[in-house]
Each structure stands twice: as structure tokens, then as C-alpha cells.
Amino acid sequence: MVFYAWRTGVILFPAFGFVLIPLLIWFQTGIGWLLNWFRVSGRRVCQVQIGFWIFAVAGIVFCGWVEGTPRGAFRRLVMDPIPSSVQVKEWNGMVGLEGFYTFYFEADPDDMAKVINGLHLIRIMDSAWFSPPSPSRLLITNLILTPSENYFHWKLSNHCAWVKVPFTKLDGPEVCGLSNSEGKMKDRWVGTLLMDREHRKAFYVLN
Questions:
Q1: Which of 110, 129, 158, 167 is buried most, with the most CB atoms less than 10 Å from its CB?
Q2: CA-CA distance, 146 to 81, in Å (whole number)?
């Protein structure tokens, strides 16, 4: 997680290093001992050890890049396997005591249904995403939208700005989440799915 340490583990990455680095040093020592046992020249031993470290660093960087791509993060944090039409466009977040992740993705309605069913989500009609605090006079700025939709997009745009994910408007937004009983049964992060009425565009908010 070299390039994506902020997203994938400000706390976990140093702890991971405490395990990986001593293990690599132990392997390097073992390689040197084995080559010396076969009476390989000191120069060749040094070359093999340098090659080992180059291979190890390249492998760590490659794995970090794969896991840090939007699709890789979606597979690791949301669901695996990913339905074929799902295109994860953006993601960001941070792990920790108050960790959070936000994904923006697009999919065909059939595959969006697979995501909803796979995550055991149900539609929430009285979501806080639609409930502005009273009075909400300041939030009613667009006569085309209902006040609740105004508040939804205002809240979503603020959330996107906070997590640094580009904001995308969701026409006729719907909210899906875990029921209270489901949330208590599942030992995992609680996610909220925000999608448009056509079920083609969605944000998935993990917290």
C-alpha cells in the first residue's frame, strides 16, 4: 500500500511494515547463507540479494497499485466478484477508528440489483438523506426539485467535497441500506447505497 497508504491504512500500513520488513530481511539472510553453503562467490551472493530486494519492492508496489485502483478497492471493500457491467469511476476514504470510504460507480439496472441483493440492502423511505432540519427555507432553491431532493443533493455534494470524490447528480434519488436487524447480524462495515431512479448511477458510502 505504498501509493495508497492514506486511503487503505494510515494505521495498518506501519503495522504491516513491522511484519513484512523483518520477514524480507530473514529471507535475504537465508538466501545468503544458502549460497555461501554452496560456495558461491561473494560477488554473486551480493547480486542475488540485490535482485531479491528489487523483486520484493516491485511486487509490493504492484500489489499496492492493483489494490488501490477503484475496481480493486471495490472488490476488496464492497463485494467480490463484481458484476460485469459495474464500472467503478471514483473512490476515496481512510481507515481508522472513525474510518470511511465512498465509491461512485455505474452499472446496468440488472447488475445494480445484484449489488443490492449481494449487500443485503433494502430501500429506506424515511432516510436522513431526505430529511432536512426544520426550517429548510434556505434549501428550497430549485423549483424543479422537491425540497427533500434539494436537501439530498446539498448533503451529497457536501459529502463528496469532504471525501474528495467528484459530485454527480442523481435524478430521482433513492436510498438503500441495511435494516436494523440485518445490521446487527452482520459483522461488517455499514454501507448506504445512493442511486438514481433508473438504477444506473450510484454512490456507496461506507462508515
A1: 129
A2: 37
Q: Which residues contact 194 (CB under 8 A, 6 or more apart)?
A: 129, 156, 170, 173, 174, 175, 202, 203, 204, 205
Strand partners, 194: 175, 203
3-state secondary structure 60-92: HHHHHHHHHCHHHHHHHHCCCCCCCCCEEEEEE
Predicted TM-score (pTM) of the model is 0.65
Enumerate residues 6+ apart whose C-beta is below 8 A from 168: 104, 201, 203
Tens of pLDDT, residue by residue over 150-175, are 889 999 999 999 989 999 999 999 99
Q: How far is residue 109's CA from residue 116's CA, in Å, rounded to a whole number?
A: 10
- As a whole number, mean pLDDT of residues 115-142 equals 74
Interhelix angle 42-68/12-37, rounded to 10 degrees, is 150
Catalogue the long-range contacts made by 80-86 (C-beta closer than 8 Å, 24 or more residues apart): 83/107, 83/111, 83/114, 83/115, 84/111, 85/110, 85/111, 86/111, 86/115
